[in-house]
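Section 5: illustrative case.
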């Protein structure tokens, strides 16, 4: 019996070793070249339609990472108040080996059977798919079985609310089953498939391509121009591409932003969304930012002044099961709305968000006043991994309090209580978090006894260095040129530099052996943290250092789209959470804050000529290859 137990134990140990080996070495067995292309993207008409595009680029070790690799498809077709419609469109080109978001806001996908281009012109209720087969491509449109369909030679009508009109020029076949109907359209030659919602009019592919190009070009033209001419045209191009990604990742109705098109991040994290809104308003897209701030000011809260951590991207409802509240969303709201006002001088906007602002300030003032350390409560903060008093949260909220006091001043409201709270919080942060060399990232209470007296003090919750201390410095918590700032940032650089970028903190196992498994080792450098440092370099006048880091994130991107993190050994983007909206937002913010180097109007004209030429080339290539007649 003992020997049998030993055998069972030995088998179990071997099995455990194999499993552990598979987990910790998960990223060593996949084609890393594919990770330079996004597996998921969002697209929409920016008015009332949004949809998820699964490109067909395989996710490594999909099951282990919580994914299911599949054919190229369009899912989550969201149509305003109707929510997500019960349709799905698939194409048999899996596996794909190329995907990209283009500067004319189209998606290109290439796979074993050919190429597909996808677009949704601004303000129109159409999704246009251009199909270029090198072998037969079959599109399959999945429709609920209880919906009636009328099919004509090159048009199908789904009779429901809303009505769906499908235009095509391939060979069709309707498959009926108990659970669903499948309209299959086959293409041996170049063709189109147009999925139109509540609009029975057919628009030729050439018209939709041209209209889409004009609308996207007009939107990009409204963007703030890049002031610094030292950066390459590639970085400028990716600035506009990042703006498109942020806009595509915004719910066109509610104004929320998805943290990423990746299904595991397809939620509205208030932190990430705040930076997305800030990036848009700094780039001149005021209405897009306005939509988010108004949504947030009216969104459901846990209690007055305290938001949930994340919300449903499609309906704005809170995710009540997700974790502990993260209090940095309070400060980011205050920072964001103050900056919005500074840009627009829109007093009616301040009046609109004032009730919500009053609640956040009341919450902060009361919590700081009742806390024995004059800090805000413990939270999970930016990395969602450590329940403690976190430097990130405390300093972000301190900046928010200061900005809120200025809002009150503009509105002629007494701001003395806000100033007192901001001052107390600032003093407490410097007292407890600064250790003479760097800021502790987080602190926890500890009880000690002196002379038989119980004393509660704060001690570091872990000894790790943490790059999250850099961005609050960038945002003005302390003078970026001060000796304190210089010391802290250089400590983070010395301990967290990996492969030329900056990791989050020491001994970071996320993406390696904690939750996700697409990295070859711990301590992946992240784009946002690397951009925190790039932003800091701008503020202290190290422009070449800032641009060098901008080039770094560009080099490790997915065709110009920025991931969350990069493999620390191989340098490829980690695909499970890419592209990341916050990465794009930080890139835009950093580019926008590069100081001008006295460029003249000719430089601006040249930049726009290059961008317009690129857009025309892309559009011409699409139009030339498409089928222009019904």
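Designed sequence:
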């Amino acid at each position: 019996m003992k020997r049998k137990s030993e055998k069972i134990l030995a088998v179990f140990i071997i099995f455990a070793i194999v499993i552990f080996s598979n987990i910790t070495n998960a990223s060593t067995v996949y084609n890393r070249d594919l990770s330079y292309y996004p597996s998921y993207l969002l697209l929409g008409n920016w008015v009332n339609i949004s949809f998820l595009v699964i490109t067909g680029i395989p996710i490594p070790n999909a099951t282990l990472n919580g994914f299911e690799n599949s054919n190229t498809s369009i899912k989550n077709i969201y149509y305003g108040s109707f929510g997500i419609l019960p349709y799905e469109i698939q194409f048999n080109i899996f596996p794909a080996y190329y995907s990209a978001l283009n500067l004319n806001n189209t998606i290109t996908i290439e796979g074993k059977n050919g190429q597909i281009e996808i677009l949704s012109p601004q303000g129109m209720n159409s999704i246009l798919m251009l199909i270029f087969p090198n072998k037969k491509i079959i599109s399959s449109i999945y429709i609920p079985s209880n919906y009636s369909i009328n099919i004509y030679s090159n048009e199908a009508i789904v009779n429901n609310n809303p009505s769906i009109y499908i235009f095509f020029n391939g060979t069709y076949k309707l498959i009926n089953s108990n659970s669903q109907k499948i309209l299959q359209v086959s293409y041996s030659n170049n063709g189109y498939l147009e999925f139109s919602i509540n609009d029975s009019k057919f628009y030729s592919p050439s018209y939709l391509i041209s209209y889409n190009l004009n609308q996207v070009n007009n939107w990009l033209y409204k963007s703030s121009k890049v002031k610094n001419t030292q950066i390459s045209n590639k970085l400028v191009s990716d600035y506009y591409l990042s703006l498109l990604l942020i806009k595509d990742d915004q719910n066109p109705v509610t104004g929320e932003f998805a943290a990423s098109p990746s299904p595991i991040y397809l939620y509205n994290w208030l932190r990430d969304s705040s930076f997305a809104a800030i990036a848009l308003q700094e780039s001149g897209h005021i209405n897009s930012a306005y939509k988010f701030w108004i949504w947030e000011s009216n969104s459901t809260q846990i209690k007055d002044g305290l938001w949930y951590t994340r919300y449903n991207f499609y309906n704005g409802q809170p995710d009540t099961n997700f974790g502990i509240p993260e209090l940095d969303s309070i400060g980011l709201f205050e920072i964001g709305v103050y900056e919005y006002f500074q840009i627009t001088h829109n007093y009616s906007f301040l009046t609109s968000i004032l009730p919500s602002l009053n609640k956040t300030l009341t919450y902060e003032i009361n919590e700081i006043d009742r806390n024995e350390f004059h800090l805000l409560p413990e939270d999970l903060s930016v990395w969602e991994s450590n329940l403690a008093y976190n430097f990130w949260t405390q300093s972000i909220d301190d900046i928010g309090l200061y900005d809120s006091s200025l809002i009150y001043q503009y509105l002629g409201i007494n701001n003395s209580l806000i100033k007192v709270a901001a001052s107390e919080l600032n003093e407490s942060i410097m007292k407890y978090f600064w250790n003479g060399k760097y800021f502790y990232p987080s602190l926890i209470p500890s009880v000690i006894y002196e002379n038989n007296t119980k004393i509660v003090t704060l001690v570091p919750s872990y000894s790790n260095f943490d790059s999250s201390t850099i961005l609050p410095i960038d945002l003005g918590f302390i003078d970026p040129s001060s000796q304190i700032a210089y010391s802290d940032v250089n400590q983070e650089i010395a301990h967290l530099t990996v492969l030329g970028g900056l990791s989050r903190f020491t001994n970071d196992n996320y993406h390696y052996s904690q939750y996700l498994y697409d990295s070859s080792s711990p301590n992946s450098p992240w784009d946002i943290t690397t951009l925190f440092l790039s932003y800091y370099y701008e503020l202290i006048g190290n422009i070449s250092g800032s641009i060098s880091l901008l080039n770094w994130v560009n080099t490790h991107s997915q065709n110009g789209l920025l991931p969350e993190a990069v493999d620390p050994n191989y340098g490829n983007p980690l695909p499970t959470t890419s592209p990341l909206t916050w990465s794009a937002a930080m890139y835009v913010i950093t580019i926008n804050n590069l100081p001008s180097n006295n460029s003249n109007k000719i430089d601006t004209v040249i930049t726009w000529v290059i961008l317009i030429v690129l857009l025309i080339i892309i559009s011409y290539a699409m139009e030339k290859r498409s089928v222009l007649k019904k």
